[in-house]
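Below is a concrete protein record.
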Amino acid sequence: MEAVLGSAFAVLERPRWLLLALAGFLARGGIVVLLIPLVQVPTLAALANLLGPALVGFVFGGVSLGFLVLIGTAVASLAAGLVLGGLAGAAVDLGLVREAAATEDLEGVPGPDRGGPGRAVVVRWLAHLPTLIVIVAGASPLVDAVYQELIHPGDPGVPIFGRIVLRVPAVVGGLLVAWAFGEIIGGLAVRHLAWGSGAVASLARAVASLARPSGLALAVLSEALLVGAVAVGWIALAFSFDGVRVLVRDAAEPWFVALGMVLLSVAWLAALWLLAVAAAWRSTAWTFEVARHLPDGTIVHAGG
């Protein structure tokens, strides 16, 4: 597939794209992905004390003040992060799209000089409407699963988050699938937007790009590479962090703790590098795929 090989060589020749792609990934929420292995899971008793009163009111039909404060704070923080991170990530994405379109691999293809970060963010949000629908539909079962886990804990050998997932696997699975679909459609739509399509047209053309055999294969391959990079990074970070935590807890020799911190830093940098490679290749490959199948009627010049 031309987009696969061409984008791989383009990324290898331009290491700067790794930093840009990583910055865009982290700004759009990828930083949370890297922090998950470093978060100490609270005990069941701590979760019960924290969430119990709020969940009791919700499950039994009454909405307490504590629950409203909890939800309001979470929603406000999420909204602020989505807006600011989305704008920063969109600006980086559009910069990468324009640089990739200027390579010799796409010689003769008009420049993607339309669209801006604001419109790109809106397009990405529209692409995640299915994700929002899944969240709304699954909110009540998910909250109920958390409540049931707090009052009737499952197998103590399984982490609490894992037990919650096992109670509502369809909700969690649907959310992951909807999120992945939204990310793919959003990424493709931003590229169509940069080549002059309107917001709605860019989403429609993104779906058409994904329906194309080469587009579908590229989407599966790029997502598999990104998920693989995240999984390897998680394993390395979790193992390193757990080792440092044990050393600190057992009051090990200072030089031994320092060595553990060095290894944790190396694992962190390695995880960032893997994500940078996966994100840069995915971004470039999507740009190549869209550029080589530009539909007739696409506005490709600022004055066109």
